[in-house]
Design a protein that fits this description.
The chain is an alpha/beta fold. Helix content is about 35%, strand content about 20%.
C-alpha cells in the first residue's frame, strides 16, 4: 500500500470539513464520472507518464485509472481522504498537497483529471493554479475538469449537507476565457443537464488538452497587465514570454521598476503585481500566421479577463496587435478605447529586430503604461 507523502498545504475551512468527515462523505456519495475518466484513460493510452487525479478524495478514480494499467498519482489537501485513497488505490502514488502548488516536475504528467476539486478554490486563484498544471503536463496531454455553473466567488452553499465548505461557480464564457488563457485547447466545454443520480445541473464538463503555448500569469491586484501579440515557438519552448535572447522586454521592465526579477512571469505576478497574457494564445513562428478571427477572439477574451480581474491598466507590447484588433492607425501611447473598463497603453515592440526603439525608449514606455493606474 502506498503511503501518502506530504507537500505544502495551507489552512482552509473546506479542508477541515474533509479532514473530520471523510468517511461520512465517502459513504453518502457516488462515483458519477466513470465514463469521463474512461475517456481520459483512452486518450492517454500508450503513455508512460502518469495520470494525476487532482483532489482524489477517497481514491475512486485513482483506482479506476490504476485498474486500466496506467501509472497513477493522486493528490488531496486532506490527509483523511488520502488515508481512504491508500486503501482504494493501493498502487497509486499519493501526495498531500494544494492544487495551487502542484508537487510535480515540469512536463512529468501524461494527463490529469479534477472532479469537483478546483471548485474549492477562489476563482481569482484559478488562473495561476492552472498555470502550474500547464507546467506539469506534457504538450498535448489531455485533462478532464468538472466544475460548477453559476456566478459565485468562494462562498458556502446555503443547504450544503457538509456545511463549512466553500465553493466557486463559473459563467461558461468566463471559464472558457480562463482555460484558453491558461494554455489549454478546449475540445469540449458544456453544461450538462441533470441525471437521475444528480440533482440540479450535472455541472460544467471540460475536456481540454495542454497546448504548446504560454499560460497566463494573472490574478487580482495587478498594477499592470502586459499583453503580448502571441507567443513565439521559442517562448513556448522555454515557458517565458519575451524569452528569446535579444528581446528587450525584461531589461526594460526591470529598469522601469516593474519587476524585481527578470524572465520569471510567476514572480512578476506574485511579488511585483505585473500580470502577463497574449492577445492570441496560439504560438507561431511568424506573426503573419495569425488571422483576423484570431485577433477578434483574443480581444473578446481580454475584455472578459480585464472586466473580471480589473487590472489598473493594460499595456500592449507592439503596435501590431492593437492595430489589427482595434485601430489600424493607432500610435504608441494611451489609447482612446479601454478594455474591460480599464485604460490601455500601446508601446513599440521590444523585439531586437525593432531598431527604431532603444532600450531607454522602451523603458520610458513601460513607465508611462504603469503610471496609467
Amino acid at each position: 500500500m502506498s503511503k501518502p507523502r506530504t507537500s505544502k498545504t495551507e489552512p482552509d475551512p473546506t479542508r477541515q470539513v474533509y479532514e473530520t468527515r471523510a468517511v461520512e462523505w465517502r459513504d453518502c456519495r457516488q462515483r458519477t464520472r466513470t465514463a469521463e475518466v474512461d475517456h481520459l484513460v483512452q486518450r492517454v493510452a500508450g503513455s508512460e507518464a502518469p495520470i494525476a487525479d487532482l483532489g482524489c478524495g477517497p481514491g475512486w478514480y485513482a483506482a479506476q485509472i490504476a485498474a486500466a494499467g496506467m501509472a497513477t498519482v493522486g493528490i488531496d489537501n486532506a490527509r483523511a481522504m488520502l488515508d481512504l485513497a491508500a486503501t482504494a488505490a493501493p498502487t497509486a502514488q499519493l501526495v498531500q498537497a494544494d492544487l495551487r502548488h502542484l508537487p510535480f516536475q515540469t512536463a512529468s504528467l501524461g494527463g490529469a483529471l479534477a472532479s469537483n476539486s478546483y471548485v474549492h478554490l477562489q476563482r481569482s486563484a484559478i488562473p495561476l493554479a492552472l498555470h502550474d498544471l500547464h507546467r506539469c503536463l506534457r504538450a498535448g496531454a489531455p485533462v478532464y475538469l468538472h466544475l460548477f455553473p453559476g456566478d459565485q466567488e468562494y462562498q458556502m452553499f446555503p443547504h450544503d449537507d457538509f456545511p463549512g465548505r466553500h465553493f466557486s461557480a463559473w459563467p461558461l464564457p468566463l471559464l472558457d476565457a480562463v482555460l484558453v488563457g491558461a494554455g489549454f485547447t478546449i475540445d469540449s466545454l458544456a453544461e450538462h443537464p441533470p441525471t437521475p443520480t444528480v440533482s440540479g445541473s450535472d455541472g460544467l464538463h471540460a475536456h481540454v488538452h495542454r497546448a504548446h503555448t504560454l499560460a497566463d500569469t494573472v490574478g487580482p491586484g495587478m498594477r499592470l497587465l502586459v499583453v503580448g501579440l502571441n507567443p513565439s515557438v521559442y517562448s513556448a519552448d522555454v515557458s517565458v514570454g519575451f524569452g528569446r535572447p535579444g528581446n528587450r522586454f525584461w531589461p526594460a521592465a526591470h529598469e522601469a521598476g516593474l519587476v524585481t526579477k527578470t524572465h520569471d512571469p510567476r514572480h512578476a505576478l506574485t511579488h511585483d503585481h505585473i500580470g502577463m497574457t497574449d492577445l492570441v494564445k496560439r504560438a507561431t513562428r511568424k506573426a503573419d500566421e495569425l488571422t483576423t478571427a484570431d485577433y477578434r477572439a483574443g480581444f473578446d477574451r481580454l475584455e472578459l479577463l480585464a472586466g473580471w480581474l480589473q487590472p489598473q491598466a493594460l499595456c500592449f507590447v507592439g503596435l501590431a496587435g492593437w492595430r489589427a484588433a482595434v485601430d489600424r492607425k493607432a500610435v504608441a501611447g494611451k489609447q482612446g478605447r479601454s478594455i474591460g473598463g480599464r485604460p490601455v497603453y500601446v508601446m513599440p515592440s521590444t523585439s531586437g529586430l525593432n531598431a527604431h526603439s532603444s532600450l531607454a525608449d522602451l523603458t520610458d514606455h513601460l513607465r508611462h503604461a504603469a503610471a496609467l493606474g
